[in-house]
Specification:
Length: 206
């Protein structure tokens, strides 16, 4: 990106185009080493200084100045509207609830899938049957040490555990939605830690 600057004002900003070459009388020439003085001003490299954005912020107004022989464009951070921020926060919470809800549960040192299909299948079962433990005998209820396997499973106990797991995920989402609705400023929304208090989703270590 090139800027043609004159007395702190931009005359042209873009590429080394035919239009720029015609403006400064260098048609057909290669781009000169910058900075380069012309009759219309000085050609300078353009550098962008992007703001560090906090949550619920976007880049705002841009300003330009000559700095270290470059045309430096700096943009400010700008808060989005509270309404838009609430939509983002609620979407984040909904996505996290879905992740946790479908993340699986532990029962008697076995790990069982809790995706929607698994929830539906488990809800229809009763008694003790050979059921597929989704991925797992576990070391410490956080990491896995074996592949999936069929184990004799008390389906009534599993059904209760899955229902409680899903209910807890939705209850946590509701708790956050209430807090989000109560927030009346961006600052108040930023104080809500949307990642805290969720059931941990276990990860494989192989």
């Amino acid at each position: 990106m090139i800027a043609l600057e004159s007395s702190g004002r931009i005359v042209y900003q873009g590429s080394w185009s035919l239009k720029l070459q015609e403006m400064i009388g260098l048609v057909g020439n290669k781009q000169p080493k910058l900075p380069f003085d012309t009759s219309l001003g000085t050609l300078r490299n353009v550098r962008f200084a992007k703001p560090v954005l906090d949550k619920y912020q976007v880049a705002g107004t841009e300003t330009g100045e000559v700095k270290n022989n470059e045309w430096l464009i700096t943009s400010t951070a700008k808060d989005i509207s509270v309404e838009s921020a609430k939509v983002i926060a609620k979407n984040e919470v909904s996505q996290k609830r879905y992740e946790v809800e479908n993340g699986g549960i532990f029962l008697n040192n076995k790990f069982y899938a809790t995706d929607r299909d698994s929830q539906s299948a488990i809800s229809r079962m009763t008694g003790t049957i050979a059921w597929k433990a989704a991925a797992t005998v576990v070391k410490d209820e956080k990491t896995f040490i074996s592949d999936s396997e069929f184990v004799d499973t008390d389906m009534d106990a599993l059904k209760i555990a899955v229902a409680a797991h899903v209910a807890a995920a939705y209850a946590k989402e509701k708790e956050f939605v209430i807090a989000i609705n109560a927030a009346d400023t961006i600052a108040a929304l930023r104080l809500i830690d949307l990642t805290s208090g969720w059931t941990e989703v276990p990860l494989r270590d192989f």
